[in-house]
Design a protein that fits this description.
Blueprint (H helix, E strand, L loop, with lengths): L2 E6 L3 H10 L7 E7 L2 H11 L3 E5 L7 H11 L4 E6 L4 H9 L4 E4 L4 H16 L6 H13 L7 H8 L3 H12 L3 H17 L6 H8 L4 H12 L3 H6 L2
Parallel strand pairs: 1-2, 1-3, 3-4, 4-5
Helix pairs in contact: 2-3, 9-10, 9-11, 10-11
Length: 235
């Protein structure tokens, strides 16, 4: 049975980012609902009784910390993850006092979110352990995503196994296709750049391993649910 998660943030782009930054299904989760304010979020927690809720700290009508305190009063077992733009110890300490299990900074880092999901799942149903070859694949992609020649064949050659077998093994263990993993790694890096710097699509594509900036834009829509221009306009 998959674990249930709620996404609660007043920014549409943040919710879309959360839905696409990790493969929830492959990690053993299903998104059972989303809300744009704390009041509606609290209603959904009572309605769905989720295992995990990802909550923005600043929302209309009820803040994330106020919502966390209300959840404590309801004596729900849901694990709460607070998102914040504040790199502030006092905010983090207040969150922990309010029963929050984790405090993540925006923009959400894929690896940090995965760590939270896997540790939560481990608490509930036991650890996720990937084989050595799959761990090698993940490390190789992270280190080489900027290389435009990165391919399944190149990864398989590095590890020393057949490309077809590697693709099948990777999909079976993670629930994701290798090509999707490569694209997500590149897109996460591209999004981080766009949130900090101004650059053309061609410059961005060159920096994260895409030959074609228009193909990169299509990948943004496919995997993350929004375009590079939407990220620029939300800065």
């Amino acid at each position: 049975m998959k674990l249930k998660v709620l996404l609660i943030d007043d920014e549409y782009l943040v919710r879309e980012r959360l839905k696409h930054v990790v493969d929830w299904d492959a990690e053993g989760y299903t998104i059972c609902g989303e809300a744009e304010d704390g009041v509606r979020g609290l209603e959904l927690i009572e309605e769905h009784d989720p295992d995990l809720a990802v909550i923005d700290i600043n929302m209309p009508f009820m803040s994330g910390l106020e919502m966390a305190e209300k959840v404590q009063e309801l004596e729900k077992k849901v694990r709460l993850v607070i998102l914040s733009g504040y790199d502030d110890f006092e905010y983090a300490r207040s969150a922990i006092r309010s029963g929050v299990c984790c405090y993540l900074l925006k923009p959400v880092n894929k690896d940090e979110l995965l760590e939270v999901l896997r540790s939560t799942k481990k608490e509930i149903s036991g650890p996720i352990v990937y084989s050595k070859s799959v761990q090698q694949v993940l490390s190789f992609i992270e280190e080489n995503y900027k290389d435009m020649n990165l391919s399944i064949e190149l990864i398989a050659d590095f590890i020393g196994i057949n490309p077809t077998y590697l693709s099948s093994k990777y999909k079976k263990e993670t629930g994701r296709k290798l090509v999707d993993e490569i694209n997500l790694c590149r897109l996460n890096a591209a999004e981080a750049i766009l949130k900090k710097e101004c650059c053309t699509l061609q410059e961005l594509a060159d920096r994260v391993g895409y030959n074609d900036p228009y193909y990169m834009s299509r990948c943004f829509k496919k995997y993350l649910g929004y375009s590079p221009s939407q990220i620029k306009s939300s800065r």
